[in-house]
Amino acid sequence: MISLARLMLFLLTINVAVAQDDPMLFNHFKAERLEYEGNGKLHLFKWEVQNWVGNDEHKLWLKTEGDYSADQDIFGRADLQLLYSHNISTFWDFQIGARRAFEPERTFDGVIGFQGLAPYFIEVDSALFITDNGNFLSRLSLSRDLLLTQRLILQPRLEVNAAARDIQNRGIKAGITEFETGVRLRYELEREFAPYLGFDYVEEESLREHQHSLRFVLGVRVWY
Amino acid sequence: MFYQKKSNIALYSAVFLPLLINCTSCIADTYPLSIGEKSINLLGKSQQAILANGTLPAPTLHWHEGELVTLQVTNHLKEHTSLHWHGIILPYQMDGVPGISFDGIAPGETFTYQFKVQQHGTYWYHGHSGMQEQMGLYGALIIDPPHEHNPVERDYVILLSDWPEADPHRTMARLKKQSDYYNFQKRTLFDVVRDIRQLGFANTMADRLAWGEMRMDPTDLADVTGANYRFLVNGHTPEMDWTALFSAGDKVRLRFINASAMTHFDIRIPGLKMRVTAADGQAVKPVEVDEFRIAVAETYDVLVEPQSDQAYSIFAEAMDRSGYASATLTPRSGLKAAIPALRPLTLLTLNEMGAMHGTHGAHDSADNTGTAPEQHSVDHAEHNPAMADNPHAAHLHQMPMADIESYPTLSYHQLSAAEPNTDWAPPDREITLRLTGNMKRYIWSFDDIKYADAEPIKVRYGEHIRFHYVNETMMNHPIHLHGLWQYLDNGKGPSNPKKHVINVKPGETVTVDVFADAEGEWAFHCHLLYHMDTGMFRKFVVEKTGRQP
Fold first, then answer.
1. Model ipTM?
2. CB contact under 8 A, B188 and A147
C-alpha cells in the first residue's frame, strides 16, 4: 500500500517536471463517477476515477473504483490498477499492469485489457484479472453519450464483473458476479464539470447470497 | 516597455541604406520589429498577447518589388521567437522557421533578416515558434509592384484572425483529452426525431449508423470554434467595428488575409459584387463573386465599386458558423450597415467521407458510405441559398456579364493565372501525399507518420514534382509549402494559378506542381496551427545534384 502510494506520488512529480519541457506530454485526470448511490435500505458513496500521464503512444494509467458505506463505515469494494497503456489502433489502447484490491480482501492481480471507443460511439473499458491463486476475473464497462442538448447529456451505462471459477475464501461464484446498469443525466456546466442524477439497477451473485436492487444516483463528473 | 516606444514603424522605415547596393533606383529600407508580451483586453478581461511593436495585429509592412529589405527583429520574450514571411520567395536562411531555416531568436537577441523582394502583392508575416502566432504575432505584408497597372482610390487591408479565450497550450491539452471539446453544434436526439419526420425512420437510422460506425461527426467542421474564439478584423471585434471609408464611385481594393490559427471564413459584402483580382498575392483573371471562402493563411485581393451613398457590412462567417468577424465599409463614419444573421452550418456528408474509406479498402462501412448520400439530401446546405460548400453549384449560375465571369461563390476551379506560366514542363516525379489524422486522439500527420517520426522529403534542385494531396480525413487542410510555389492543377494548363497555400477539402484529392527552384531546407505543413503542432509537418529539402546521398 505504501509502496503504491509512493509510486503514485512519483508519477505525479514526473509529470509536473516533464510537462513544461515537452508540451506533447499530457496528464488527464477524470472522475467519471463521484456519487451517492442509495435507496431506502442502503447508502453508498461510489467512485470511478482514472488518471493517465503520457503522449500519443505511451501512457501510464491509474484506475480506481469502489464503494464506501457510510452507515457501516466499511468499504464494500475498492481497488487500484496501475497500467501501461499503448495506443494500438485509431480508437484502441492495449493495457497491461497490476491491480491491488483492498476490499473485501487484499489481493494482487495481474491485469490485461483494452480500452477505447467502439463503433457507434460506445466507450469500452475491459480488463481481465489474473488472481494470485490462478483464477480469472473480468470486468467490462460500456457507456454511450446521448445528447438532449449541447450540455444536457444522457449516459446509459453497463458494467459486468465475472469470474471463471469459484473462489471459496472470497465468496466468489463462477459466472457473472456483479451486473450493474443504469442511466445518468448530466449537465455540463463546463465540459470539465457536470453534476448528474440517475439510477442504477444492481445484481450481485456470490456463494453466500444473491441480491438485486434499484438505486438512485446523484453525483458529479469532473476532469481536467 | 521598450518595445512600445518603437511602435511607429513608418518612422524607422524611412531610414535609407544606399551603401548596401550599387543601384540608385533601388529602395532598401530597414524595419525594426520588437517582439514582446503585452496584456490586452478584447474579451472584457486582461489577457497576455505576444505582439510585434506592441500592436494587434503587428504593423503592416509596406515593401516594394526589387527592394532589399532589412528586418531587425528583437526578442523581448523569455522564450525563443521567430518571424516567417509567408509566401515570400527568399533564401531559406531568411525564412524564419526555427529548427529548419535557423535556430530561432533567443531572448534578448536581435536577428537581422535581409533579402531582395522579388514579387508584389498581398502577403503576411507571423511567428513560427510554439503558439506565438495564436497569441497575436501576425501582421500584413503589402508589396507594391514596380508599376501599378490597376490604380484604386482606396486600398485597405482586411486581416482576419481568431483571438482565443483560453491559453493555446490549454486548448491543445483539451483537444488531446476530448477532441470535440469546442463543438457545441453536435446533433442531438431532437435532431434524430426531426430527421425521422423529414427523411423517414430507415434513412435516419442508416445515416446515424454510418456515422456511428466511422465514429465521426458530420458537425465537426472546426476543431476550435467560436466557443473559444472571438473573430477579429484588423484586431477589432465586431463590436469595435473596424471601419473603412469610401466615396460613392470609388474603386476600393480590399486585401483579405486570413491570419487565423484554425478558422476558415466565408466572406461576403451584402449588396456588393466582389471582383477577385489576386489569390495568395498572385494576379488572377478577374472573376466576380458574391461570396468566397478564405482558408487559413490564404490571401485574396478583391475590388468593389460601391455606387450608392450607403454603408456595407464586410461579413466573414466562420466556416462552422460558430461566430463571425465583421467590419464596415461606409461613406461616413458613424453610418453603419445591418449585420447579416449567421447561417446554419453545412453538415459534412458521407460522400466526402467516402474517399477516406476508398483508400482503406477493406473497411466494413464501405457499403454504407456508398449508399447513404441520398439520405443526406436534407443536409443544412439545402436551406443555404449560397451553397458555400459546393463548388459545382457555381457553374449553374454562370452569367455572361461583360467579359468577367460571375459566380455566387468562388471556387478553386475559377482561379486562372493572369500571366500564363511559360516555363511549364512535364513532371519528373510524382509524389502522393496522404493527409491523415486521428480525430479522436487528436494526432495529425502526413502518410500516417507524425513529424517527430518522419524523414524529410528530398528533391533535386531543378526537379519538377507533381504532388497528389489525398485528404483521408474529415477536416479541411490548408497545405503550405515554404519558399516554393504550388501550382494548383485546376485544369487551366499553363494558367494554373500558383499559390502558397492549397486548401484540400475533406475526402478530396488535389494535384499541384512544384518546381524545385530554390535550394535549401523548407517547412511543408498544414497551416492549421494545432494540426501542424501535433505532427502534420515535414521538412522539404531541395538539394543541388551531387550532394544527394
1. 0.89
2. yes
